[in-house]
């Protein structure tokens, strides 16, 4: 039987939540962090013109986009299949899944994941955020609180593993692991299939990280 987990922080649920909508993004602010991301993008674009990055980006979307964030603690991926969950539990000792798509009762992918989690003895936490909407302060604090309270190796995932998984991984490194700013924000990069440019609807994740930076002690960005 699946273990049900109750949380008081906003956005956490075990049933009845769908994926979020889209909101208007603030105007671009040219800051140090933006400059670094632009540099990463330009480098990636150069490779793309040679064909390499294009192939890799396609690979991440067509496959599981699995990556180690912090060995023994946090892993990230696209929507996992039951078979992948079983494989990753055996290989990495997973104990918990954080589903950033939110609970979607009746959806085949969600029912399959919930059944697999119950069968494998994995704790499933549903925390809905949208990749196209800037996280509110309440959503950010709730997600950070959730990540700080994780016990055991955890998989965090969204649909593609690029955007929502990226912001959660960045928050984890910044708040829980106390990593440097560049290391944390590198979780939102082309390497994972995320496009950190203002014209992308998923730039909401970059803005969300920028807004949270002072709380992580990144005061000079």
TrEMBL record:
One Pfam family it belongs to: PTP-NADK
Residues passing through the membrane, by range: 38-59
InterPro entries per record: Prot-tyrosine_phosphatase-like, PTP-NADK, Tyr_Pase_AS
Key words, A-Z: Membrane, Transmembrane, Transmembrane helix
Domain DSP-PTPase phosphatase fused to NAD+ Kinase residue range list: 71-181
Protein name per the record: Protein tyrosine/serine phosphatase
Provenance organism: Afifella marina DSM 2698
